[in-house]
């Protein structure tokens, strides 16, 4: 497609390009992602709900879209998509359709042909901000007026838009099992088949059960949990803590998700009730919710962390890992008053990346150990959670 399109930021900066997704108009918080590959996983990551994503890598669409690399139940979750150059002729044996067709099918408004380097530098200098993409209204003043009236994504609970509607048992991964009824203990779960001899060390351990609160969970988190020897049940974000305790899992996962953690008040309240009763592992938004549940504070970053190349130091092992990141908020560890110790730090800007409770079996990380896309340096953290549970 070669139709004209405009991108207007809330501070009045205008970019003109061409649309290549769905015709129409969309608004969201404009952020940039520095990943060189993995645009399909990025598009379908529920953490991007409410945001328009700019890819800094210049050519996007080269390998098309396939049926395997989707990270959520409901397809693309971004509000809009911005690229320098869209490639409409994919070349990959796994491709089932072009990126442009996929975006049109899912009604995602996009723009290509703008200077994404200039846009990224602007966001770095002035911070992430609201923006609007339109292929139907090409009057910059009209678009600027529309985006200035937008209250911003912190005015909404975006988790409600991306969570599952009902509980389900995850069955994809190394382990295969018959769906178990709620409340079944881990020792009662029966392994139906085992597929990878390289992970035979897991086969000799009991299958532990975990409940995953779906605040916008990525499928790769669920895959990593099954590969680590967990029976995984996913529940809606608003599931009461009492219902989770009745299921009697061996542990609880607080998943990633979109938006300002302070808007997800029900999740904070339920987490408060679970602390000290079950081992807890939080990822990204789950990390922030855990911090708020312990009466800590969160703060917003200038332009967030989005990409697959962030160096994070694990203070427990002194190891530096290259991580996948997607968040705009951080936990102020000092606000927790010594309840936790800092376990990870971001080597780009020194922000807090992880914490572990001084006494209770709970810890969390700000980055995405499951990657999808990104490096797998931090995948061992899922094993760390299992080991913590086994130690009691």
Task: Report on the architecture of this protein.
The chain has 392 residues and is α/β, with parallel strands linked by helices. The protein has 2 domains: 4-155, 3-Layer(bba) Sandwich (Glucose Oxidase, domain 1); 160-391, Class I glutamine amidotransferase (GATase) domain (Rossmann fold), CATH 3.40.50. 22% of the residues lie in helices and 31% in strands. It has 11 helices and 21 strands. It has a 10-stranded mixed beta sheet, sandwiched between helices. A 7-stranded mixed beta sheet has the order 2-1-9-3-4-6-8. A two-stranded parallel ribbon has the order 5-7. Strand 17 and strand 18 form a beta hairpin. Helix 9 packs across helix 10 (285-293). The longest helix is centred in the C-terminal third of the chain and has 12 residues, at 380-391. The protein is globular and about 60 Å long.
């Amino acid at each position: 497609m070669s139709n004209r399109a405009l991108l207007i930021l809330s501070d009045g900066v205008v970019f003109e390009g061409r649309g290549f997704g769905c015709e129409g108009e969309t608004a969201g918080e404009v952020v940039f992602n520095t990943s060189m590959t993995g645009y399909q996983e990025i598009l379908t990551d529920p953490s991007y709900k409410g945001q328009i994503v700019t890819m800094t890598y210049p050519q996007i669409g080269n390998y098309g879209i396939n049926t395997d690399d989707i990270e959520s139940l409901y397809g693309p979750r971004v509000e809009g998509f911005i690229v320098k150059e869209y490639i409409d002729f994919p070349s990959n044996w796994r491709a089932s359709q072009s990126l442009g067709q996929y975006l049109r099918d899912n009604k995602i408004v996009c723009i290509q042909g703008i200077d994404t380097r200039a846009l990224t530098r602007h966001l770095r200098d002035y911070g992430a901000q609201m923006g609007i993409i339109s292929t139907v209204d090409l009057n910059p003043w009209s678009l600027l007026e529309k985006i200035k009236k937008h209250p911003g994504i912190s005015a909404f609970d975006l988790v409600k838009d991306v969570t599952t509607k009902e509980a389900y048992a995850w069955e994809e991964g190394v382990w295969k099992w018959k769906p178990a009824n709620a409340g079944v203990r881990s020792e009662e779960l029966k392994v139906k088949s085992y597929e990878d001899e390289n992970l035979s060390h897991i086969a000799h351990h009991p299958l532990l059960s975990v409940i995953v609160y779906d605040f916008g969970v990525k499928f790769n988190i669920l895959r990593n949990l099954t590969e680590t020897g967990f029976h995984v049940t996913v529940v809606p974000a608003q599931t009461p803590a009492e219902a989770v305790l009745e299921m009697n899992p061996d542990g609880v996962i607080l998943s990633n998700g979109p938006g300002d953690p302070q808007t997800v008040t029900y999740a904070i309240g339920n987490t408060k009730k679970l602390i000290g009763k079950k081992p807890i592992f939080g990822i990204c938004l789950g990390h922030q919710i855990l911090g708020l549940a312990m009466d800590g504070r969160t703060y917003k970053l200038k332009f967030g962390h989005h990409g697959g190349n962030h160096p994070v130091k694990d203070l427990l092992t002194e190891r530096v890992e290259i991580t996948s990141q997607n968040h705009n908020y951080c936990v102020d560890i000092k606000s927790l008053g010594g309840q936790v110790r800092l376990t990870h730090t971001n080597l780009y800007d020194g922000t807090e990346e992880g914490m572990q409770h001084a006494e209770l079996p709970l810890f969390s990380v700000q980055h995405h150990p499951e990657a999808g896309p990104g490096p797998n340096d931090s995948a061992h953290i899922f094993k760390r959670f299992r080991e913590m549970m086994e130690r009691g």
